[in-house]
C-alpha cells in the first residue's frame, strides 16, 4: 500500500512530440506513439524510454525533425473518430431542433397556416442550398421537422413556457390589468386580459390569457373567470393595482359590474376607463361638418371600388399619373381605426380621384373640392389617434 501511494503520475511535456508521442485521446496521462498508435503506461512517459521506442521500433523515422511529427499530429487530429461522428451528428440534430422551434415561432408571428412549413419554407430552404451553396439539401432538410402537427406542438410548447415564466414573475410583482369582452363570428364570447408591469426598470406588457365565457357575459362571470385563472396560477389578487375596462355596464356597473366584484376582493384597486374606448367614442361622434366630409370620402370610394370597371380604370389612371398607389381602401365600421388608413390613402390619391370623377359624378367632385381642408384635417386626426394607440399599446 505504501509503495502504491508513492507512485508518481508523470505529466506530458510538449517536448515529447519530437520523439513522436502525444497525449492519448482517451487518457491524457498516457503517451501515444503517432506512428504505430500504441499507448504506453504512465511510467513509460520518460524521454529516454520514448526515444528508445522511436529508435528501436521506428528506426527509419529516428532522424525526422519536429515539423514531421507536427504534421502527423495534425493529420491524426483531423481523422474522424466514432466519438466525433456521434457528437457531430448530435450537434446537427440539436441545430435542426433549434431551427424547427425558431421557424415555428416565425410562423406563429406571421399568422400563417402551420402547413406552410412543409409546403413553402422547406422547399425554399432546399432551393437556396442547392442553388447558392451547390450542396445536396436532403441531409439538412430532414433534420428540421416542420410538419403541421410539429409546428403546432412547437407553438403550444413555446406558448406554455412563456405563460409559465410570466405567471411566475407576476406572483411577486404589482401589475395593472386590462379586460375586454368580445363576441366572435360564431357567437362565442371571448374574454381577453392584458397585464402591464415593471421589469428591470422597464414597463412591459403581455397578453395574460384569452378565455371563452361559456354562458353569459355578466360582470360576475367575468370576475370569476379572472379569479379562477389567478388561483390556478397562484397569483395573489392583491397584486392588482389598477384595472382598465370599457364603459359597458357589465364592466363598470355599481352593484353587479366586474369592477364592483373586484373591489370586494381588492378594495384599493384603481379603475380606469380605457383610453382607446374613449377615442373610439370620440371618433364615432364627429361634428356635423366633419361627419359630412367623411361621408363624401366614403361615397367617392364606394363609387370607384364597388364597380370593377371603375376600379380598373382608376388604377390605370393612377399609374399614368405616377401615383404611389393605384387602389383606394375600404374601411370597416367594427375596426374603426381602419378609417385612418382609408383616409390617408384617399388623400394621397386626392387629385387622381378628382380627375376620375370629372366624367363620373361632377356633384360629388365639387363637394370633395369644397371639403378638401376638412378631409385633410380628418386624415391627420385619425393618423394621430393611431400613433397614440400604438404608443400606449392597448393599455393605460
Structure description:
This protein has 396 residues and is of the alpha/beta class. The chain has 17 helices and seven strands. It has a five-stranded mixed beta sheet with strand order 5-4-3-6-7. Helix 12 (288-305) packs antiparallel against helix 16 and helix 14 (338-348) packs across helix 17 (372-392). It is elongated.
Biggest β-sheet: strands ordered side by side in the sheet: 5-4-3-6-7
Q: H/E element string?
A: HEEHHHHHHEEEHEHHEHHHHHHH
- Mean pLDDT across all amino acids: 82
What composes the largest sheet? 5 strands, mixed
Structural topology:
Blueprint: H1 2-5, E1 21-23, E2 31-33, H2 47-57, H3 66-78, H4 82-110, H5 116-133, H6 138-141, H7 148-170, E3 175-183, E4 189-199, E5 202-213, H8 219-232, E6 240-245, H9 249-252, H10 258-265, E7 270-273, H11 275-284, H12 288-305, H13 308-320, H14 338-348, H15 350-357, H16 362-370, H17 372-392
Parallel strand pairs: 3-6, 6-7
Antiparallel strand pairs: 1-2, 3-4, 4-5
Can you tag this structure with a few keywords?
17 helices, 12% strand, alpha/beta, 7 strands, two-stranded antiparallel sheet, disordered C terminus, disordered N terminus, 396 residues, single chain, 5-stranded mixed β-sheet
Amino acid at each position: 500500500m505504501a509503495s502504491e501511494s508513492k507512485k508518481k503520475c508523470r505529466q506530458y511535456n510538449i517536448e515529447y512530440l519530437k520523439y513522436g508521442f502525444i497525449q492519448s485521446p482517451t487518457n491524457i496521462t498516457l503517451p501515444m506513439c503517432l506512428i504505430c498508435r500504441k499507448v504506453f503506461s504512465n511510467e513509460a512517459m520518460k524521454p529516454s524510454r520514448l526515444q528508445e521506442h522511436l529508435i528501436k521500433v521506428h528506426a527509419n523515422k529516428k532522424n525526422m525533425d519536429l515539423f514531421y511529427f507536427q504534421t502527423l499530429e495534425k493529420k491524426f487530429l483531423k481523422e474522424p473518430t466514432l466519438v466525433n461522428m456521434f457528437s457531430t451528428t448530435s450537434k446537427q440534430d440539436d441545430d435542426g431542433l433549434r431551427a424547427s422551434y425558431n421557424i415555428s415561432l416565425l410562423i406563429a408571428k406571421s399568422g400563417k397556416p402551420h402547413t406552410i412549413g412543409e409546403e413553402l419554407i422547406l422547399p425554399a430552404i432546399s432551393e437556396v442550398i442547392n442553388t447558392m451553396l451547390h450542396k445536396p439539401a436532403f441531409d439538412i432538410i430532414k433534420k428540421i421537422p416542420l410538419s403541421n402537427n410539429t409546428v403546432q406542438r412547437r407553438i403550444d410548447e413555446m406558448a406554455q413556457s412563456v405563460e409559465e415564466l410570466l405567471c411566475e414573475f407576476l406572483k411577486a410583482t404589482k401589475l395593472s390589468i386590462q379586460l375586454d369582452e368580445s363576441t366572435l363570428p360564431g357567437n362565442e364570447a371571448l374574454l381577453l386580459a392584458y397585464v402591464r408591469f415593471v421589469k428591470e426598470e422597464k414597463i412591459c406588457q403581455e397578453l395574460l390569457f384569452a378565455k371563452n365565457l361559456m354562458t353569459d357575459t355578466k360582470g360576475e362571470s367575468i370576475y370569476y373567470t379572472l379569479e379562477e385563472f389567478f388561483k390556478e396560477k397562484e397569483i395573489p389578487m392583491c397584486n392588482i393595482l389598477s384595472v382598465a375596462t370599457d364603459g359597458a355596464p357589465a364592466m363598470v356597473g355599481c352593484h353587479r359590474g366586474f369592477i364592483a366584484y373586484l373591489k370586494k376582493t381588492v378594495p384599493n384597486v384603481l379603475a380606469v376607463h380605457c383610453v382607446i374606448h374613449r377615442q373610439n367614442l370620440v371618433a364615432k361622434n364627429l361634428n356635423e361638418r366633419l361627419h359630412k366630409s367623411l361621408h363624401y370620402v366614403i361615397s367617392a370610394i364606394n363609387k370607384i371600388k364597388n364597380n370593377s370597371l371603375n376600379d380598373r380604370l382608376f388604377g390605370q389612371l393612377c399609374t399614368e399619373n405616377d401615383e404611389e398607389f393605384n387602389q383606394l381602401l375600404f374601411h370597416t365600421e367594427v375596426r374603426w381605426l381602419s378609417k385612418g388608413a382609408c383616409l390617408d390613402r384617399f388623400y394621397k390619391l386626392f387629385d387622381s380621384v378628382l380627375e376620375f370623377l370629372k366624367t363620373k359624378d361632377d356633384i360629388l367632385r365639387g363637394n370633395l373640392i369644397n371639403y378638401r381642408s376638412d378631409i385633410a384635417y380628418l386624415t391627420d386626426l385619425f393618423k394621430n389617434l393611431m400613433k397614440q394607440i400604438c404608443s400606449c399599446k392597448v393599455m393605460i
